[in-house]
Amino acid sequence: MDLPQLWFILVAFFFVGYFVLDGFDFGVGMSLPLIGRDDTDRRVMINTIGPIWDLNETWVIVAGAVLFAAFPEWYASLFSGFYLPLLLILLALILRGVSFEYRHQRDDDTWRRRFDLMIIIGSVAPAFLWGVAFANIVRGVPMDEAHNVTSGLFHLLNPYGLLGGVTLTLLCLIHGLVFIALKTDGEIRSRARRAAGIAAIPGALCAVGFLGWTILMHLDIGHIGAVVALAIGAAVMMVAATLANQFGREGWAFAAMAVTIALAVATLFTALYPNVLPSTSGVGGLDIRNASSTDYTLTVMAWVAVVITPLVIGYQGWTYWVFRRRVSRKHIPSAAH
Prior knowledge:
This protein is an all-alpha fold. It is 76% helix and 1% strand.
């Protein structure tokens, strides 16, 4: 394995980590109007991710930084054609983060409802737009010989891209509902389990359709067997998550959903390899060779990653362990807002 191949795998690893971890954050935000009966319920739900949502979000910063340093041509071409959706994702993430911090700053129902709406928008929009973006990265976009993407936002909203957006949104919703069931107690826990079971039906249908479509588009690649195996693995783990949720085994259900999302994202990266941004116009496509940095840059980055990555993973694991206990309505002081 050479350095460009190694760093393609590491880029995939960081994006897998981001979608697994921030995915259930998105799902919790989406579920506020679905299972939150009153403000106390919604505060319980927000408190399940309160200590960890910003830590989860740092994975996209790391993924973006790694992409910029390891594959600068890929990074530049993405922003030449995906600038508007990426900007909308950034604005939605800012909106969500601000809302988490400000919703409790005033004892006013209208104030809280407005920030709850921003949390919902700031959770649905990134999940959907990330799905659209990655679907189009795998599908390919029109490019010129200078590797500039020559299409705009509406070109990205094709059937395959839209299905990718809906699929990721539903997977994040299920992931978030299972996490709420894992982290709460009482009636809200029961409602989260029931809602996750209901959402699993359209989620599974969309996931099967999207991954099946992905396989059909890449039947001519030499490693199609690996793509099929990963897609089947994602389907099996989603079934396992659904069954575990039905039997009240929230820990197993959450772990299975995490593996489902990880395998689904890995399927896309495997189908993409060795390309990083295919061209549908016949010229200008990028692969891991013509998009990567120099070997010296990749070597230095590799040594930094060897030192830093275990520390980041260890710290995050310790944080999850510290905040592992369930949250319930009794933990929400009635006088607080």
